[in-house]
Amino acid sequence: MSERGQLLYILAPSYSGSTLLTYLLAQHDAIATVGELKATRMGDIDAYRCSCGELIRECEFWSRLTQRATDEGLDFSLDEFGTVYGNGTGFVNKVVRALVRGPLFETARSALLKLLPDSMTGVRAVTRQNLALSKIVCDLQNGSIFLDGSKDSARLLHYLQSGEWDIKVIYLQRDGRGVTNSYVKHDGVDYDGAIDYWRRAVTELQRMRGRLDDNRVYDLLYEDLCREPEQKLAEICRWLNIDELDHAATFSAESQHVLGNSMRLNNVSEIRFDEAWRKKLTPQNLRDFEERAGALNQSLGYKAA
Ligand SMILES: [Zn+2]
Predict the structure, then answer these.
(1) Cβ(177)–Cβ(281) under 8 Å?
(2) Ligand 1 (ion): which residues have CB within 5 A?
(3) What is the CA 15 to chain-centroid distance, rounded?
(4) Which residues pair with 178 in a beta bridge?
């Protein structure tokens, strides 16, 4: 047994099903989670609802967590989790939070972060905060594996470099036509912009994936999870060396305290396989996607339309 805490990280683009996966895995007794520990998409905290349905300021779980964090001397509040790497202005913070790039940049980043005092980068302090909170969540939920559904690559990179956890990663992808359709729908970008955004996101996630040992990674497609949830979740449990779930494909968001985007409050308690892109994208959209992102999408395992 390793003395380090076990951390399960979801590495994925936005709108790829990470919240659904979080809900499904959170049902397991061994898994403790609050969804996205980076907590960057809360908006107005006074109006923010926990997935349990309560305003977060009135949620009993979050109030116990805040109390524990305060008792342990952490600088933590619902307004400021203190869990984001490079959450400031200036060049150093930009380097800290930059998406994962090629080896040249990563060698330079790693050298720079070793050179600079932690008071300038904040990396070790943010790691300590994430570590302390992950232990409190595991304690409160009585789980041994902490699941962070934060998705982004730079955060995973800092976790790995800290050496503080025994880390496993679920690398989750979804058909780029589905993701781009969601970007247009929810983020107000045009379809060209959505294709650019998706290509950049997947390219940098692939770089991060390339840095990971295969035995630490479970590769998962959103579509496979929706088509055969019981089977996929059983596989994930075996890979994590934990008992398989009963009734794996059903879940109750209300019994969990999960953070993330506001969409997590919709579609709760059942798997809704979202393939709206098949109807929403125009033939021109599909041609544009094929031309600019088709090869990348096919490399993830998706067939051209
Ligand atoms: Zn709650």
Answers:
(1) yes
(2) 50, 52, 59, 61, 257
(3) 10
(4) none
For the record, the structure tokens of 193 come out as 């912009």
CA of 34 to the centre of ligand 1 (A): 9
Distance of CA 37 from the midpoint of ligand 1 (Å): 14
Centroid of chain to Cα 299: 22
Q: How far is the CA of 28 from the centre of ligand 1 (A)?
A: 17
E strands, 5-152, are 5-11, 31-33, 145-151
Residue-wise pLDDT tens digits, 257-283 = 998 765 556 555 778 889 999 999 999
Distance from C-alpha of 27 to C-alpha of 30, rounded to nearest angstrom: 9
User: Rounded to the nearest whole angstrom, what is the distance from the C-alpha of residue 305 to the centroid of ligand 1?
Assistant: 41
Q: Which residue has the tokens 């880390």?
A: 167
pLDDT digits (tens, 9 = 90+) for 21-61: 999 999 999 999 999 999 988 889 999 999 999 999 999 99
Tell me if 259 sits within 8 A of 53, measured CB to CB. Answer: no
Give the Cα separation of 176 and 194 in Å (integer).
Answer: 10
Say whether domain 5-275 belongs to CATH 3.40.30: no
What does the pLDDT look like over 70-128, one tens digit per residue? 999 999 999 999 999 999 899 999 999 998 999 999 999 999 999 999 988 999 999 99
| Residue 49, CA distances (Å) to 41, 78, 225 in order | 12, 12, 27
Alpha carbon dihedral 261, 205, 38, 155, in 10-degree steps, equals 180
* Residues 6 or more apart in contact with residue 45 via CB below 8 angstroms: 56, 57, 78, 79
Determine the Cα–Cα distance for residues 149 and 18; give it in Å rounded to an integer: 7
Confidence (pLDDT) at 1: 47
In degrees and rounded to multiples of 5, residue 221 shows phi and psi of -105, 135
Average pLDDT of the segment spanning 130-156: 97
